[in-house]
Specification:
homodimer; 261 residues; alpha+beta; Beta-Lactamase; 2 domains; 3-stranded antiparallel beta sheet
Chain lengths: 261, 261
């Protein structure tokens, strides 16, 4: 218990507290007062103030004229360097635009983050069905076309974790039975595409396909979200798979579909 | 010099060191090894390792299969909540697309961050001139169309800081004389648009106009970057100003142009 030892022990908690402060911001709570920040993080007001002052000085957080704090431009700038975010988005965007334009529907791109997915981009065609997704927003892996693809290719421990935990129901058609989900995931792996039929909203279905990197690993998923009844999912699959393959090629994926996960 | 006092004093340095680690990442250096991180931040290897482990656990940084660190998806997600980044981008994008499509040239959107600008979006029309900019990238305020607008409406101390410091030269036509720049800035304020004629590259000129928020404050700038000689800047100005006004309206700006900065 030397002074040095104590200092070493402090590093973690202090950085973690600062990051927890950033966690308080969300799409629902994009702006927070100091006392809201303290409340949402469970930090004493003085600690929250000290940390937010540091974060403001660097630009992670900005203070508006109204005294409220919001996520700062510096974080947006830095976030633009994330290869799985902006880098992937820029490579995929032209293909998503083609997919949305040709079909008139929604083209989506998502990656897995732990046991959830994060939407990286969404391009709405002229006759697109309204969807619940938001770029930068999270969603369960079990319900959507992109989610089923990402879960099907996730490490076994992630699959067990997701299938073992509570599975959210969105509609009467959401598959929440782990055994049925396991069958769906096996089908995704063998056919190369996923179908989520009215599992998120009753007016929409989505068809997803995997995007692979230069090592042949699944790093993202593309989907087309269409009005239920407008097209047979099996008719959409070749379109979505072609788009996913085009993005994979842009990422340097090998031309032959690997058999590995 | 109580224990508590020492702890309070630690908060700043520890958080600052963690943020300095994030600063090591840039468009030129999107991936870094641990020793590169230590070298770029000037931190001892053990400290860098401890901090990067914390940042990885939270998702600010990700470690690739090759052992290199890169900006993590969590930062991209959080950055998407920045009102001056993603929020502004989403509001402005349709107008920028119109501007690029109608003219065939580059439409750009930027905000001021301290004494520099950050490009928030760039939409390239079918016959756009190659430009040096990158979304999320920084640039001097003195040379570009967007920069001149942002500098013209910046607080006096920022203007003094920029005009008093060294002013980068990009071409033989870059204006680097503070007195001439002051005249240019006054013209931007009185005419409502800026002209940067071959100041960044010798084949391009840009025309910029201010974007205002609901308080009438200038929060961003739009520009059109065209091939030099393809159009008279004064002919482009109404187009760019109209686009900037449309974006301002989308942000809730009052219809009459305010006389305040």
């Amino acid at each position: 218990m030397t002074g040095r030892g104590r200092h070493t022990g402090r590093t973690g908690p202090v950085v973690r507290r600062a990051l927890r402060l950033l966690d308080a911001f969300s799409a629902r709570r994009p702006e927070l007062t100091l006392s809201e920040l303290a409340r949402h993080t469970g930090l004493p007001l003085a600690t929250a103030h000290r940390l937010v002052t540091e974060l403001c000085a660097w630009g992670a957080v900005e203070r508006g004229a109204d005294g409220r704090y919001r996520v700062g431009l510096r974080l947006w700038e830095l976030g633009a360097l994330a290869p799985r975010g902006q880098g992937l988005r820029e490579r995929a965007l032209p293909f998503l635009e083609d997919l949305a334009q040709i079909t008139g529907e929604n083209a989506q791109l998502a990656v897995r983050e732990g046991s959830e997915l994060v939407f990286i981009e969404r391009v709405a065609g002229p006759s697109a069905v309204p969807v619940l997704t938001r770029v930068g927003g999270r969603f369960a892996l079990t319900a959507t076309g992109v989610g089923l693809v990402l879960l099907a290719h996730a490490p076994a421990e992630v699959q067990e974790d997701v299938l073992g935990g509570p599975i959210d129901r969105y509609t009467s058609r959401t598959v929440t039975d782990p055994a049925r989900l396991r069958h769906l995931l096996a089908a995704v792996r063998s056919t190369g595409f996923s179908i989520s039929d009215r599992q998120v909203t009753l007016d929409a279905l989505s068809v997803g396909a995997p995007v692979r990197d230069r090592h042949g690993q699944v790093v993202a998923a593309v989907s087309l979200v269409v009005h239920h009844g407008s097209a047979a999912p099996h008719a959409l699959a070749p379109l979505v798979r072609t788009s996913a393959r085009a993005i994979s090629r842009a990422l340097g994926a090998p031309p032959d579909r690997p058999t590995t996960r």
